[in-house]
Design brief:
about 475 residues; alpha/beta; Trna Endonuclease, Chain: A, domain 1; eight-stranded mixed sheet; 17 strands; about 40% helix
């Protein structure tokens, strides 16, 4: 360390940062390097003042005890106002060493700062988006850039505060991971069926893909089909429960003839009563049910009346897939500590909103990953196709609410051994890639490594391989894979 740099340890330091629409990148260096006695000179253009870019940043800095903050105007073109050095606010002395944050503002501002204060600047600091690291550079032209640990990474709440965003009421989601506590959620065995059991996968997709592709669902052989579903249900397995729940859900949503629906519902109840009489200790309590309440029985209460089965058949298929993705991501983090090291927080089912309109959802996110450099990654779980404009809109709302460097990744089942839906999900994958959005295939264990295509076999990486590839760019050079 040079003599000038040692000055930082002996007396208060003056930090200089340029306020911008991406103040998350300013907050992390300031919170890491600033002490409570230090001062911050926050340079603002007329646009920054008008858009109130600094308000959230100042709130977060004060939250963590950095209270000596001075706001100073600069020209709209980024150049400093004449006499800036002579107009420093009270409390800032001429002998203070200066640290300049390089992340915010225009290049003209940085050039002006260096030109005016070059003899007082002792170091520069820069927060790198990729890889995740904080660089501190001695102002000595022959000095080296040193990587410092990010001492105070931002939480999701901090990022939203800086961007004047919030949650819709009740939309904070579930904190599934935090760097202060480690991985929190223990995977449930039945969720592993989603990528280990071929029969389970086949049952799921036979029931759901037809609906997603908008093909008509025809009831053939009502008695035999319903009896088969109901008789298997008593075995109390997630596979059978999901199959029956799916069947009744489809009957409720796609069968338009009211009399036909009522007949089917009556027949189901009749079969249920028959089964409850012929099997010990499995008595159905709902012997009578009003027509308007039958869907409640079908989709939630039926399979929960007896036994301790942990699988909830009332959950939507998409919700179930989201949980399966999280548990697999959870295992990935356990086995990839280098990735876990750059993650601050992970939340599930988050609904973001503008602070000025908290009642209006600006974006829903299945899995939201917060990196230590403030970048947010939304992992979108898809079990069906989507419109291109939908994904663009999601990405636009995400960057608007959390920062321009936010990313959207899409994961969807892609099972190479299942011709029933391989082509269908392959189309979804192709659409995602055309949008230049990372696609994370959700594969099964021990499935074929690819599927036939017009130009030969198309390789499909595993879920873990695809995740590792995407996170690789955020890792320090010394521990990158490949």
């Amino acid at each position: 360390m040079s003599p000038r740099a040692r000055a930082h340890a002996k007396r208060p330091t003056l930090f200089i940062a340029v306020s911008s629409g991406q103040n998350v990148s300013n907050a992390i260096p300031l919170l890491t390097l600033m002490e409570t006695r230090d001062h911050l000179l926050l340079l603002e253009s007329d646009t920054a003042v008008r858009q109130q870019w600094s308000r959230g940043l100042i709130t977060v800095l004060k939250k963590y005890g950095r209270k000596h903050i001075h706001r100073v105007s600069i020209r709209e073109d980024g150049l400093l106002q004449p006499g800036l050095v002579r107009r420093f606010p009270p409390g800032i002395t001429d002998d203070m060493p200066v640290t300049f944050c390089l992340n915010g503002g225009q290049k003209t501002t940085a050039a002006s700062i260096v030109a005016v204060l070059q003899y007082r600047i002792t170091r520069y600091v820069y927060l790198s988006p990729r890889p995740v690291k904080l660089l501190v550079m001695d102002a000595n032209p022959y000095g080296d850039a040193v990587t410092m640990p990010i001492r105070r990474p931002l939480t999701l709440d901090d990022v939203l505060e800086i961007k004047e965003s919030t949650y819709q009421e009740g939309g904070q989601g579930v904190v599934a991971f935090t760097s202060r506590k480690g991985v929190l959620v223990k995977p449930r065995p039945e969720l592993e069926l989603f990528y280990t059991d071929k029969k389970f996968i086949r049952a799921v997709y036979r029931l759901y893909l037809n609906r997603d592709i908008s093909k008509p669902f025809v009831f053939k052989g009502h008695k035999e089909e319903i009896m088969a579903f109901l008789s298997e249900t008593w075995e109390r397995t997630p596979l059978k429960n999901l199959a029956f729940s799916s069947f009744t859900m489809k009957m409720n949503t796609e069968e338009k003839d009211r009399r036909r629906k009522e007949w089917l519902a009556s027949y189901i109840l009749q079969v249920m009563r028959h089964l409850s009489r012929t099997q010990e200790n499995k008595t159905i309590q709902q012997n009578q049910l009003a027509p308007e309440d039958r869907h409640l029985l079908w989709n939630a209460g039926l399979l929960q009346t007896t036994g301790d089965n942990p699988f909830n058949p009332g959950e939507r298929f998409g919700t179930y897939f989201e949980k399966a993705v999280w548990h697999r991501l959870n295992s990935f983090l356990v086995n990839h500590p280098a990735v876990t090291e750059i993650v601050t927080e992970i939340r599930l089912n988050v609904k973001l909103a503008r602070k000025s309109q908290p009642e209006k959802v600006a974006g829903e996110h299945d899995i939201l990953i917060v990196l230590k450099n403030g970048i947010l990654i939304s992992l979108e779980c898809k079990t069906h196709t989507f419109e291109t404009k939908e994904i663009f809109a999601r990405l636009a709302r995400l960057t608007n609410r959390t920062g321009n460097l936010a990313q959207l990744w899409v994961t969807a089942p892609l099972f190479t051994h299942e011709t029933l839906y391989r082509d269908y999900m392959g189309e979804l994958e192709e659409k995602v890639r055309e949008l230049n959005i990372p696609f994370i295939p959700f594969n099964m264990e021990n499935q074929p490594p690819g599927y036939p295509g017009p130009e030969g076999e198309q390789p499909v990486p595993t879920f873990e391989q695809a995740l590792a590839r995407q996170f690789n760019g955020f890792l320090p050079q010394r521990i990158r894979k490949g």
